[in-house]
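Researcher: Sequence recovery benchmark, item below. Answer with residues only.
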């Protein structure tokens, strides 16, 4: 059996950093478990900054403006986007059109990670390992 690896969905990352009570007990326990590898995708950096710039995340101004510094103290590994992720994201048979979610699903699947999310859109992917 391999090492358990978790990929945080963007809203999960925002809620962890901001100390939001919206984070489930199960997700919080997994995120705080130092024996489990946690990853933050470059997709989340893009999604946070893009949505902040267009006015969709005004409550996360501090996180958006200090993202790189905050990420450095979080204790997770950065996950870059590669060609395999992009290819799988584009070819997935999934009607969900959100490019951020599609890429996160593709990364979690191709890297054999569990995605920590409460977004019900991912429930349409029975082959994707989810935690909430």
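Model:
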């Amino acid at each position: 059996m391999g090492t358990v690896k978790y990929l945080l969905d963007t809203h999960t990352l925002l809620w962890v950093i901001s100390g939001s009570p919206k984070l489930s007990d199960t997700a919080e326990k997994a995120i705080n478990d130092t024996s489990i590898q946690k990853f933050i995708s470059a997709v989340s950096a893009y999604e946070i900054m893009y949505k902040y710039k267009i006015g969709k995340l005004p409550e996360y101004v501090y996180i958006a403006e200090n993202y790189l510094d905050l990420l450095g103290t979080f204790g997770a590994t950065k996950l870059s986007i590669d060609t395999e992720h992009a290819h799988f994201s584009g070819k997935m048979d999934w009607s969900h059109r959100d490019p951020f979610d599609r890429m996160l699903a593709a990364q979690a699947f191709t890297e054999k990670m569990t995605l920590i999310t409460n977004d019900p859109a991912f429930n349409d992917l029975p082959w994707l390992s989810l935690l909430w």
